[in-house]
Amino acid sequence: MTIKTYLQQLQKLLPNTWLEQIQYIHSSLLFRCILFLGSKPLTFSHKSTMVFSPHQDDETFGCGGMIAHKCEHGIQVVVVFLTNGQGAGGSQLNSHDKIIQIRKQEALTALEILGVEPSKIHFLDKHDGHLQKLNHQERKETIEQVMYLIEFYQPQEIYVPHKKDCHQDHEATYELVKVAIAQAGITVDLLQYPIWLFWRSPLFILLKLQDIAAAYSLSITLVQEKKQQAIAAYSSQLESLPRGFINRFLGDYEIYFKAKS
Asked: Judging by beta carbons within 10 Å of its beta carbon (0-12, 13-18, 19+), is residue 35 exposed, middle or buried?
């Protein structure tokens, strides 16, 4: 049994209220530790950007401030959603088709708030929760779709979920995009954004010192309100997420981890 599997099994034994409180404290402490002790300031760049998001909301939670900053400066930002989001919670969602429709509209609304042009938003509509289970042909087709978009837009920066983000679709997105970048043969700055990493990854067990050494912090004070409004646009998701988890993304800094493309 791997450490990750052991931790997942251990989490199932704890009452939800206990687990959420432990995760909130852990996430807050880890975020502050990295922000004030382990990260370097990320200089705002005017480079064109692509954000790959496993689900509709990850891009706003992880990169909303950066996206808003870029758009305010007239810099091209393209957002690509890999799954259709049908695995979402929410009491008002009665069918897979309705879930997909609602989440897609929420994504369009959130990204409009952040300033992304509708023509720069792409939905690949893969099955939610299955990115690590793609068969050979499905994986090949997905990589080709990602590679086509990368070659078409020629971004100078690409943002992906962290490779250890403790969610199968998030970690699979990182791997699929990495392969597509290599096959496209382009030089690009690759940055990882954490979503579940601080919430679920114990320090020094899954998150190592070498990971922290690659951490950068971006001040989003000037666009913080826009990000908060964009997060609020995902109303179908907010009711099913822990309040402490959501609060972590409402502050005035975003954390990124540089990776080799």
From this structure: middle
Q: Write down the pLDDT at residue 14.
A: 62
| Rounded Cα gap, residues 193 and 70, in angstroms | 16
From the list 65, 92, 45, 48, the residue with the least C-alpha distance to 229 is 65
Q: How far apart are CA 248 and CA 228, in angstroms?
A: 11
Angle at 241 between CA 240 and CA 246, to 5 degrees: 145
CA 127 to chain centre: 17
- Residue 184 — very low, low, confident or very high, per pLDDT cuts 50/70/90? very high
pLDDT over 60 (residue 91): no
Nearest partner of 52 among 80, 73, 76, judged by Cα: 80
Q: Residue 99 in contact with residue 85, Cβ under 8 Å?
A: yes
Contact 230, 113 (CB under 8 A): yes
Say if residue 53's pLDDT is above 50. yes
Instruction: Please state the φ and ψ torsions of residue 188, each to the nearest 5 degrees.
Output: -150, 150
**113-170 tens-digit pLDDT:** 999 999 999 999 999 999 999 999 999 999 999 999 999 999 999 999 999 999 999 9
pTM for the predicted model, two decimal places: 0.92
**Side chain identity, residue 196:** W
161 CB contacts (<8 Å, ≥6 apart)? 52, 53, 54, 58, 62, 167, 170, 171, 173, 174, 192, 193, 194, 195
